[in-house]
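Weekly structure sync - notes
Attendees: PM, LS, DV (DV joined late)
Agenda: review two folding runs queued last week.

Item 1: First target. Sequence and structure tokens pasted below for the record.
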Amino acid sequence: MAHVTIDRDPDQSMYVVSFDPETIDSTVIRTGFMQRSITIHKTMTLKDRMDNMFRDIDLQGTVIDKTAIDQLITSSKETEEFIKKTPKYTVDEGTKELEKSYVEDALNTLLRTSNFLQEEGASFVQLYVGRHFPVLSWHHAIWRGSAVIETEDVKYAYMEVLRPAFLDVISWIESKSEVKKAGQVEKSEENIIKELYNEIIKDNKCVVNNSYISKSDLTEAIRESMNVSEATAKRKIEDLFHRGKVERYREGKAVYIRVI
């Protein structure tokens, strides 16, 4: 984007920041921000930033390949023509029950989060999932060249876009200061997780090699102790791993960790 000009009508807008503005969590939950946007929050680790800098160095002096951008422009124009030539879009009746099950999944996910989110995010699922479902499903049907929204379109809308973004936003907001003010223990999270780890070791729950425990056991302990979602609990473990505070190894699909 820094090197190429793309002429397009302003059909959508993006608000991109490299830091969290003050009170952005309140803005996301309590205002109309959620009705009008899909909020995506990504945490950049130190390794992510280092990898990005290395890529920048590798690209120094190279010629930018516009092939992918040209293909994107062509595809966009073809999609626009398809929309103009298609007078009517319909929804396959079989997709509606699947859509309802996805809304239930999002609601159940919200009910397993902190009290703060449950109280302040009463319309969270309705705005974030319900409103964007038909639009994203329709987009996917168009990409397929179809005027009928079917199961695969609804599945894409939720599993590939809405659910991952929804979990990221929940985890991000739960980690913000307002949640901690709402009643979280003030002890450092690292110490809390270390204590939970030691309790599992002491109870000999899924302990292997004397010091490694099941990651799922620690995730559940963090979720219950800190009153956060499973996604947030997993992110806390990943943060400790990237800081060198957690070691892990795999046996098949099972993941075992040790808190240092």
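Item 2: Second target, run right after the first with the same settings.
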Amino acid sequence: MRGRDRIVLVWLGIMVVSASLGVSSAWATPFTWAEKIKKPPAWPKNAVLNVFIQPDPKNQGRDQLLKEGVERWKELLKQRMITLNVTVGNPPAGAKNAIHYHWVNDGTTVNIMTDIRNIDTKITIESGTNDGAAFPTPSQDGSVLSHGDAFIRNGLAAGSDAQKETIRTIGQHEFVHILGLADDKAGDVTRHENPSTQPNERDLKELNSLYGTATTGGSGKPKGQIQQIGGGGGLGFFQYRLDFVPANAIVDPLDPEHVALVTLGIDPHLVTSLELPPGWIGLVPAGPLDPTDAFFAEGYMLDGAGVPPPWDSQSLPDFIALRTSVAEAATDGLPAEFDPALSLDNPHFQLTVFTQPGIAEGPIEVWAGGELQTVVGPVPEPSSLILLGVGLIGVLIPRGRRLR
């Protein structure tokens, strides 16, 4: 065990969640949505996304430029069984899966409702900081995305060819967040500062973390299959093994798959430290979440949202998390080209969660891509396990006691 890896930690998620402190809010992890673990919402398979571009108030053709930028996503989404329609005009009443691009004046503050707990974040649209902001809105139960909005600075000029291309690129980039993805400084299209037009490998990894390819039928997602391999409540640690399970039955070079964020439904109060694989860092909050924590380094934020963060900073989360880190990978001596995430190239790793002595054992939920999984882990109150059938675990709770 490497001593420096035994860090006080944790929060959680799945997928790489990098974001700059600027342009918009996006749901890249499930934990903003509710005080329980759930997979991040995305547009459902076979969805038809109807984008409406508000007509240009200055009548300079900028609406058409935005339309051309958004349409750069058309083929990528078609490959993932998502249909994209883009129209200049305001959405008609009753439009389904409507996404509205609005023009707003410099200095406009956009109040983004970031989750079902009505915790919000404010972003100001103005020259030199944010030329645009965008966010999706989930269905009532938070399981899928249902509509979205983008706000574009009305002061953008469109005289030169370069200025026109800038507007196209802004339209394309803001759609990153409509899809539920965060800014990623390692991407080309997803990066906030000076985004490009052609998605690189990192962009495709981000896209494929929420959307399957045509090869997978549009619904498959890679995951880390997790199992307990050692430890227990009386031993003061729980050891787990994660094995990569690809979504594609046949390797698809156009669909690079990995799992770069793992979450465990463990009360952080029960955790003393983690032993992590090379290239990973963990988050186990001992108090209200602090964006200066190492977990938020390298431009990463937990859900890609701006400042202030959208979670309730006054209450503790009830889970821990680990994710890949470029800086940690370099510190651990991994080759620069090596991705420490779970993938076909790196299909296994082990995780040890050290706990306080005398912790009980019970079922916990883990998210490592795909659907939630249930394994044995530390629970805060005495309980005992009973087998209900193959693969099913029940918990006997003493009278008058209950799990948190």
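Discussion on item 2: Residues 161-178 form the longest helix (18 residues).
Action: LS to circulate a short write-up before next sync.
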